[in-house]
Amino acid sequence: MRAGLAEANTSKTKRTSRIRIAMKLVNSSYFKVACQDSLWFNDTMPGMNLVIVESPTKARTLGKYLGEEYNVEASYGHVRDLPEKRMGVVITSPENEDAPGWHFEPEYVQTGKQKGRMEEIRKLAEKSDRVYLATDPDREGEAIAWHVVMLLNSKIKGQNSNQIPNSNFKRIVFHEITESAVQEALSHPGQINMRLVEAQQARRVVDRLVGYKLSPLLWRKVRRGLSAGRVQSVAVRLVVEREREIAAFIPEEYWIIMVKLHNFQFSIFNVQLVEKNEEKLKITNGQEAGIAEQDLRKAEYTVDGVEKKDFRRSPPAPFTTSTLQQAAANRIGWSAKRTMQVAQALYEQGYITYHRTDSTNLAVEALRSAARFIGNEYGSEYALKIPRMYKTKSKLSQEAHEAIRPTKVDTVPDSQGLGLNRDEARLYEMVWKRFVACQMAETRGVSVRVSVSGKAGGAVYGLEAKGETISFEGWLRLYKSNSKFKDQNSSEVNGENEATVDERIPEVSEGEKLEFVDIKSEQKFTLPPARYSDASLIKTLEEKGIGRPSTYAPTLSTIQERQYVEKVEKRFHPTALGVAVNDFLADNFANIIDYGFTAKMEDELDAIAVGEREWQPVVGEFYEPFEKHLEQVSDTAQRVKVGVEETGNPCPKCTSAGSMPVGREIVRIGRYGKFLACSRYPECDYRANFVNKTGIKCPKCGGDVILRRTKSRKSFYGCSNYPKCDFASWTRPTPKASEMTDKLKGEVK
Q: Looking at residue 639, what is its pLDDT?
């Protein structure tokens, strides 16, 4: 009997093996080609499928979730674009008032790298039953998918290729690269959303028209080699206007007086002077401060009132693109570009959801997972019974993706074996904490305000102390091990948020007498508005409706690469060139850099994306008045002289040569940044490197640490004694204690 069973099992194994071999043969492209005319072969049989994505990393991650019947290939980004060295848009004007409006025909070309790659993908597509377009879920991704189809269905010179049926192309969309999300997308394939493609195309054409029409004018009127852009010009305007606000600002002196008191239990706390004789007090000079200080030293102090209020503090919303960029700038010091590069890597590896979004929506399953995790990890009192929902600011319900969140909440940041590098781990921790915190219970506590009166010399001074006590940490528990974060309402918005906790105020009661301990007066001056950082500039652009999630980082990079602004100590300063270009545009093309006009254009592009408008009329409505105005300005605008930065020194070469007159040493901007030159150029060809000193000594040789730039305009810190000393660092070195002491001594003197 056992022998019979063994024989049956052997027979079954051989039969299974033969079936597997047969299936592999059927699935092979050779078999399909050989049998494509056979009546019994049809598309319902298992076949090979091609999946096209943008990057190799994304392809590898997808490949882990798909079986052998799927071939995942990367297009390496955009496969077609407008040409680099010409406008590449054919413009047809209406022949008369009754004729159709303006028409714009983009002339797309392939780059050299993409040509060979797309030929490889084309060969694979011809052998595949289906071609899945799995590009990113936004306008850029939709446009890439459309360009891929256009290329795959175009004839290649010198080759015989079959037209691939449009029915073979399927668009799949997922907002996270996980097995469940990918399988769900494959189960519900769709078609390319041409409304999104046209919105992207309209943006590309408008930006190309502005750039290629305005740039030659800037060459003639300002300086050769310049360029202008629709969104970038508005960003430069913000930086220039802020610099002028700072220059026009007149600081005002004021004084803060703090009095240290104690109650009958000798518990000491500080109160701040705020009133005199029931009127708000503003001390504007040292003499007034001295009079108040004399009175307060001998005053009799009484508690006038104690006000206690319960408070609840909700966590911040989960990250959108802009708030992630702002938080990374505030917390880690990253540029928007670097943040997006790291976020792209996390998304493509399957750790976070899609990172270009202006939505704060969260998937139902993600909310359930968060609630389970919080309850298990922190206790039921920290979990919400009803998920906390956030109102998204996005005007586009069709494009309102999820907020940025971890794909798996139980993949905690400090897990071993995540396989992330240092930067990826830091950003992932921020995303994970922000998501988990947004579904945790509110922080609860009591805020206290103590009013104190001090009577002296016939005057009654009003003083107060404020503080708060947290009774239940709630979502703050996630952050308590970290250094104090900026307050949720801080002007440096959307860093990692945490409550600002004042010193603890001892228990006192109304009418209680207090004793004087000490007093401190401090002179201060009002400060001008701060220069823009990455975080604050992105926030302002977003608030004004300028740009979209995919444009913030490129805009900030572009205005630096074109040397219209420079970043010093992580703050944007306009260059003389940037000021000149901004002023020329403000005088002659006010609408191009008008905040409302630029925001309206963004709204028009959004309307195209949801099918409310056609893209050709939108571009035409912009172009017609722009073209007419361009012709007028070309004839009437005056040439603008770019200002130069003076060092205050005479030209060293003129001085040493005994030339008359002696030129001035000035700062010019070249291809690779600032350099020193002579004001008498070309009579004097003096040229030297511009040294941006930091006031820090080199840790290797004791020379000066200076801010330098690579050829790609990336900042780094190096030694002034290079090449003798090779010290270099991407981050600003920390000054030694002795240097800090010397600096303080200098300020005191």
A: 86
Q: Out of 70, 132, 301, 354, pick the active-site residue.
A: 354
**CB burial readout 355-394, b (16+ within 10 A) else e:** bbbbbbbbbeebbebbbebbeeebeeebbbeeebebebeb
The listed CATH number (3.40.50.10490, 3.40.50.140, 3.40.190.290, 3.40.50.2000) that belongs to domain 48-192: 3.40.50.140
* Cβ pair 342, 425 in contact under 8 A: no
| Closest alpha carbon to 467 in 689, 232, 615, 271 | 271
Provide the token pair at 70.
């799927």
Question: What's the pLDDT at 116?
Answer: 82
Q: Which two tokens stand for residue 537?
A: 């500039």
- CA dist 290 and 459 (Å) reads 15
Q: CA dist 163 to 116, 126, 193, Å?
A: 19, 8, 21
- Tell me, yes or no, if 354 is annotated catalytic: yes
Q: Can you count the helices (H) and strands (E) in the chain? A: 20, 23
CB 451 within 8 A of CB 303: yes
CATH class of the structural domain 203-249+530-636 = mainly alpha
Q: Where are the chain's structural domains?
A: 48-192, 203-249+530-636, 253-314+444-525, 321-441, 646-690, 692-749
Q: How far apart are CA 243 and CA 89, in angstroms?
A: 37
- DSSP secondary structure code for residue 474 in this structure: G
The pLDDT of residue 427 is 97
Please tell me the predicted confidence (pLDDT) of residue 735: 66
568: tokens are: 């010093």
CATH level 3 topology of 253-314+444-525: Topoisomerase I; domain 3 (2.70.20)
* SS3 category, 676: strand
Give the pLDDT score at 493: 32
Which portions of the chain are predicted below pLDDT 70? 1-47, 96-99, 112, 155-165, 393-400, 415-417, 481-503, 659, 671-673, 711-714, 735-749
pLDDT, residue 501, reads: 40
Q: Which residues contact 399 (CB under 8 A, 6 or more apart)?
A: 138, 139, 196, 609
Q: Are 522 and 255 in contact (CB under 8 A)?
A: yes
Q: How far apart are CA 272 and CA 462, in angstroms?
A: 8
CA distances from 439 to 384, 408, 411, 630 (A): 7, 15, 16, 53
Distance between CA 583 and CA 638 in Å, rounded? 12
Rounded CA Rg of the chain: 33
CATH class, 321-441 region: mainly alpha
